[in-house]
Design brief:
Blueprint: H1 3-12, E1 26-30, H2 36-44, E2 51-55, H3 58-67, E3 72-79, E4 83-84, H4 86-93, E5 102-111, E6 115-118, E7 131-132, H5 133-137, E8 150-153, H6 155-160, H7 162-168, E9 173-176, H8 180-189, E10 195-199, H9 201-207, E11 210-214, E12 223-231, H10 241-253, H11 262-269, H12 285-288, E13 289-296, H13 304-314, E14 319-326, E15 334-341, H14 351-362, E16 365-373
Parallel strand pairs: 1-2, 1-3, 7-11, 8-9, 8-10
Antiparallel strand pairs: 3-4, 3-12, 5-12, 6-10, 6-11, 13-15, 13-16, 14-15
Helix pairs in contact: 13-14
């Protein structure tokens, strides 16, 4: 598929899934095709069961899923090397109340290995592979990047390859773009051959770029976690059985064992109400599930943050992450995000419910942002 055709798909994709034309659940992802978000989406949403729609940026994913034009949206949330994706956190903060119905219902992990893509100069042999950083360090020939004047990529990818850029492309202009696959398109469009992209092997094959270097990420265990977004609903729609089946298979692959809670789990996983009355719940459900919540506290009230965190300690809920973003209500006041073990709807001891109620009492504002099964 050529670049022009991909862009046309991206522009027309949402119109192509008008409600009356839908035959399968639809999933939007950060495009263009071949982005890491696209690869993560393919990993969880097989194309024989779902229609996949690329959109231009992360905000489009939130807007498209909130509006109901797609059933699900896949967003990058954090990277093991470079931390949180602040664009996604800012949208979860929802300062303008634009996404009141969205929640996370699943997580996806993707091993990420970056390549430097571009056009090889005529003097270099085209072996089709490109050297890895390890091969270069072992003396198997140095990199030759003197023709590169600018490099395109997503800010997260630049952060994950900081050492390589510092050692081999110092002084070269870096240009932030919406995704790594968009970076590859821009580098391919530069007929001078002076542009390169930090992107994926899949993008190289799609747009016809050469591999200038492979495996340029700072850490070989580089991994990105993505969230699957959906609208909150009562009950479970019939067409959501496809996602349930995929998630069950992924849990088995991840070694998470059998499902906990039967059909009641399915309802909870999709954001429905109830705890699966009459179903047998896994006693270890708290360590096998996670939730995300946000809150604000009075900035000048001593102990206000500690009071909120005490709610989790008192309920014996393990906090796995805490981070913040500016609230923009006043300077230097923040929206705090906490991720913790436990599921809002699979809560046999009532600890998650009790904690969310307690947080709502002591925080200035609070919001549950989703619950899902842990994949790691």
């Amino acid at each position: 598929m050529g670049t022009e055709q991909q862009q046309q798909q991206q522009q027309n994709g949402l119109r192509a899934v008008a409600p009356e034309a839908k035959t399968k659940p639809t999933v939007c992802f950060l495009g263009p095709v071949s982005s890491y978000t696209h690869q993560a989406t393919l990993d969880t949403f097989p194309t024989d069961k779902f229609d996949l729609i690329p959109v231009e940026n992360i905000k489009d994913i939130f807007e498209t899923t909130q509006s109901g034009r797609t059933t699900y949206g896949v967003v990058p949330f954090e990277n093991s090397s470079n931390g949180s994706v602040v664009f996604t956190l800012d949208l979860f903060a929802d300062r303008g109340g634009e996404y009141p119905d969205l929640c996370a219902c699943a997580e996806i992990y993707l091993d990420v290995h970056h390549c430097l893509l571009g056009h090889l100069p005529p003097s270099q042999p085209r072996d089709g592979q490109g050297k890895t950083v390890e091969e270069e360090e072992e003396g198997q020939g140095g990199f030759e990047f003197s023709h590169i004047k600018r490099v395109y990529s997503h800010p997260q990818a630049f952060g994950q390859c900081a050492r390589f850029l510092r050692d081999h492309l110092r002084g070269v202009e870096t240009v932030d773009v919406s995704s790594t696959s968009r970076a590859a398109e821009l580098a391919a469009a530069d007929e001078s051959g002076q542009s390169a992209a930090v992107s994926s092997a899949a993008a190289a094959k799609l747009v016809g770029l050469d591999f200038l270097a492979r495996d340029i990420e700072d850490r070989k265990d580089n991994t990105t976690r993505f969230f699957v977004l959906r609208r909150r609903r009562d009950g479970v729609r019939e067409d959501e059985s496809a996602l349930r089946d995929v998630l069950d298979a992924r849990r088995r692959t991840a070694g998470k064992g059998k499902r906990a809670g039967g059909e009641g789990e399915a309802q909870a996983e999709m954001g429905g109400g109830g705890e699966g009355e009459g179903e047998k719940l896994d006693p270890d459900v708290y360590s096998q599930t996670k939730s995300l919540a946000s809150f604000t506290v009075p900035h000048r009230s001593p102990g206000a943050l500690a009071d909120v965190l005490e709610c989790f300690r008192r309920a014996r809920l393990n906090l796995t992450s805490i981070q913040s973003r500016p609230s923009l209500a006043e300077p230097f006041q923040y929206v705090v995000f906490v991720e913790f073990e436990g599921h809002r709807f699979r809560d046999p001891e009532g600890r998650v419910s009790e904690t969310l109620q307690s947080v709502a009492k002591v925080a200035r504002s609070s919001r549950w942002l989703g619950s899902w099964d842990s994949m790691r």
